[in-house]
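Let us practice reading a record.
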Amino acid sequence: MKLIHIALIVPLIGAALRADAAAENLLLDEIVVRGRREKPNQESLTIREVKESPARDMGEALKQVEGVSIVRKGAIANDVVLRGFQKDNINVLLDGVRLHGACPNRMDSPAFHYDFAQIEQVEIVKGPYDLSNPGSMGGMVNAVTRKPEQGAGADLNITYGAYKSVNGSATASYGTEKYDALGGYAYKYSKVPEAGNGKRITDIYPATSGNRYRVENLNTTAYKINTYWGRAGFKPTDNSYSDISYSYQDAGHILYPYLLMDANFDKTSIVNWTYRVAEFHPVLKSLKFQVYWDRVEHVMDDSLRESSQPAAKVTRGYSMRSEAETRTGGAKAQAELAVGGGIMRGGADIYSRAWNVVNRRAMSSVYAPINMIPDADIVNTGIFAEYERALSGKVTLEGGVRGDIARARTGSANAVAADGDGRSFREGGGNLQLTVKPTEGLELFGGLARGVRLPDQKELFISIPNIAGSAKNTSGNPDLSATINKQADLGAKYSAESFYVRASVFSSMLKNYINLRGYQSGGVQYLTYENVNAAMWGGELGTQVSLPHDLFAKGGLSYARGRNTGDNRGLSEIPPLKGTAALRYDNGIWFLEAAENLSARQGRVDTALQETQTSSWQTTDLKAGYAYKNLSIYAGINNLFDKYYFSYLSYLRDPFASGMKVPENGRNLYVTLTYRL
């Protein structure tokens, strides 16, 4: 109850004290955008909020948004969880580009493959209401990259913090009415963080564990990442624009205490071309074409762990190693038309994802290769159409449909599938949304939706015999069906010039939810994927308010709950109730902010996957900033009282479970300097 009381105090104070004549500044602009332009089931994160935080990647930055949590694997590369949906149950995109990691353990989650110095804003849609991209069954997160502005511009950012962490970036751009260009570079580095108990997060394994880090590697480099990007655009006509962008990320020596191995390197290339035409015709309002391609190369092994010590079978400096690669390419055509007093949007898209993972382990056959994911690909073709019309000045109706045809096929053989085995899928989804504005500033939202996502190559075809020398075998399930989410949403939002509050609730009935299942046979444990029926429900409450005397308050609550309705067991990896409450003084020149972060205990666990309960926790963050002309300085302390605690999503479930939880970072001091021309 303490968590709920603290988070509710902020909107109540704001409603009583908000000022109509608050000074114009960036925070007021954000209040207007969030209060008036976003629906109750939508959220956003601005680059201003990212720069003020010590976040190491986009996943970590997003956890301050209501309804968003992260999977903590180590010091970086956090995976995004939206309302309890994660992995392939949501889409995480970059300018609409599909990104997939190569690691079957999701070391390299999609949000890891770009730097937030490239990003201007992150758009979040909660629920299956994104029809323009296949697979947005539980929601969509789309990072929007920075665009060049008119004239010459440049900025330099450098953050130094605890654990000798460095986060630096430089961007330069130039634009005219006809042409523009932008380029940038970012560098990230850190030693191993310490938890609130004073121990490094690499020092979580017992002395008897073969997974423990060697003594000389307990304080090695936690990560080292270089990212380069550029884009160029031109206007062929007054109402058209074309641009092409490229980014390359070279990540090396990344530690994952959460897992049994660490990454040697992770190399990512992304190419994206778009062409847009506006006001093409009084009926055909706009056209957009997009073609993209990306590739991820990923190598991981246990060379830093005790399990790699030389022995009769261990002869290569590692006892297990995986070499993974994924390539994704796609194209999309979209149009917007004025039809019947409303706006119709529609289009067609296609994408292909190829995924290959080869594992080598010191066994009796001496590092014989295992086709963990057998060079499998998925090709998906889809079409969509949606229509939006104002029924009156206060009521807007929006609805649409989407259909997809997909094919999954192997390119080599393993213990699960033969070369050339495959599956075909034909699925459809859609939604209906009603928005009502009964009075000025008040908006009510209701939605019904059907979202679909296909099983991926890992779930269909993975084969991990006798993992890490134990009596455990993991197999994909080629007979899996697509997951169908039938979801209902209700939301309300009230906004004024300096105040907004929004609340939303959802309920999902999940047919053929893809779940991991374990069973025993002949003294051997087997793991595979199965379709189950499940239910999820929850909601969010968020507010931001301008108070008198240049004060701003912000608060939020998030809750999700999941249940396997087949055996009445809790779904795995569902985050508990969490909340934030913050008070900020900001006069446009300098600011000071204090925030409380709270999480309830998670007692609903999937005991079949050996999940354990996680205790509640509370942390305090402080930050301050000063802006003078083109220079800004930020400084802060996260986890002020050096709390030792765990996020519920801080340890891996089967099939790659290490058996250990990774604690959150202890006290973290940081300073950031930003200079902008």
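A brief commentary: Residues 175 and 278 are 20 Å apart (CA to CA).
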